[in-house]
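Changelog-adjacent note: as of this version, every example in the card shows the full chain rather than a window. The one below runs 75 residues end to end.
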Amino acid sequence: MTITTQQSAPPLGVATPGTRFLSLVPATGLREALVTTSLVHLGGVVPTGLLSLRPPRTVVRGLSRPDNSHPGKPR
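Full-length structure tokens:
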């Protein structure tokens, strides 16, 4: 059985902040742990959201298709 990134990302996205929060609670208290965990989480979410708005680049530059081979064009 193969585990894909799409299958492993949601559990890791919950476990990582949860572990961080629970490790901070004894040392800093509930409020500080929540604020710190939220700020660290936003530190990753904001750049990821901004990068998702960036249009993809082509993998191979200079590669062009003949007019008749467009994938959406019927033959």
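Structural remarks: The two ends are 39 Å apart (CA to CA).
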